[in-house]
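From the shared-data thread, chain only:
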Amino acid sequence: MASDINMDTAAGKAGKAGFVAQMLSGHSAVGLAVGALMYILCLSGTLMVFHEEFARWEQPEVPEFAGSAAPAAVARAAEEGLARTDDVPHHYYVSLPHASMPRLGVSLDGEASWYADADGNLTTPVHHPWTEFLEGLHYYLHLPTTLGLTVVGILGAMLVGLVISGLLAHPRIFRDAFAMRLKGNKQLAEADLHNRLSVWGAPFHILVALTGAAIGLAPCSHILRPPPIWTVTWRVFMSPCSVQTRRRI
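Structure, as tokens:
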């Protein structure tokens, strides 16, 4: 009877050790597979926090606003932008000045963009290649738009799996939460440093990865359920009284 209990206990310990070993193996494989790309995405994402500052630095000659732009200036800039194209733009944006980007600008389909002065006259074309490089790298890895966004979303999902598998691979995660054996065995010191940074940063890592996955994989949801398409007359913002909006399923 006692021998049966001992055998069951040994089998349980062996099963637990096998599970931990499998999780460590999977954790390492996924980490090596996506580590380089995730480093690029995280580094470019960190730099993208300052994308407005980079854009201002790249074009210091652009006129800036101390406060908000006058409605007449906004309308004039919008009219001038529309006058510079013979086709009906699919997307047309008017960027209003605010604290971190005190500039007025218009953009046609994301292809042609200009800044405007305080009177609404279009002046300098938007040209900030470094900022655009960072944006394309972080959101699309410089791949075609939908493909790049999907790949980034998949990497975000893999990072979520990487964090979760890493947590499951440490059965004494709470007991060792403050363990930092920096002296002695170098490999043990590196493991402790990795584990502590990973464990305490796990909520932030999961949040960043999960939101990145949701944004990146959003286009895939259209395959399951195409969204309704809203069509609006292209001069709707210029003439609010002539709004013609209809919903098409």
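The chain is about 55% helix and 10% strand.
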